[in-house]
Amino acid sequence: MDKHIIINIGRQFGSGGKQVATALGERLGIAVYDRELLIKAAEKSGLSEALFKQTDERRSYLKLGGLFGAPQYGDFSGNMLGDGDLFKIQSETIRDLASQGSAIFVGRASDYVLRDLKTLDVFVSAPIEVRKKNIVERLGISLEDAEDLIRKKDRRRKDYYDLITMGDNWGVAANYDLCIDASILGIEGSADYIISFGKAAGRI
Length: 204
What we know:
Largest sheet: 5 strands, parallel
Helix content: 40-55%
Strand content: 5-15%
CATH superfamily: P-loop containing nucleotide triphosphate hydrolases
Strand order of the largest sheet: 2-3-1-4-5
CATH architecture: 3-Layer(aba) Sandwich
Structural class: alpha/beta
CATH topology: Rossmann fold
Number of helices: 8
Shape: globular
């Protein structure tokens, strides 16, 4: 595609947000980056991919101070890694990929990282009962365990996003171009609707 399209997908755990992103990527013919970002960030920094996985969308590993504007990463020698350095590396990876061409980013505060660019920011949600059912089918766990996991994952994502944005912003409608309940239209229908919306908004 000739047009430079950047779509950021925020999502509740179990809502189908990643599947919607994948469907978008297939329809638009552009790459979708989720956990793939961790691999690219690890390659960029020379650090272990496992290190990025351990800190993925987790607030406990970050501080507010120094997340942006540092001239370089911390000293990786001697196991020294400054607070926020992993986020900086991942953010620069997101920005590098966005500068190279069209892309769809899932989570990791990508809408905030790319806030100075013309992007389509979408938040995907679904009712808790639907999400519990999705998780039970995906992971083969009980409904009770699925609900506990959903609350844990959502809290982790919210804490991480709110820390990065320095505000209570995760899932707040005013911070996105479009919020959609994926259970209403389904994965494919949601992807189609997002594309229609994006075209009308001049973002696709």
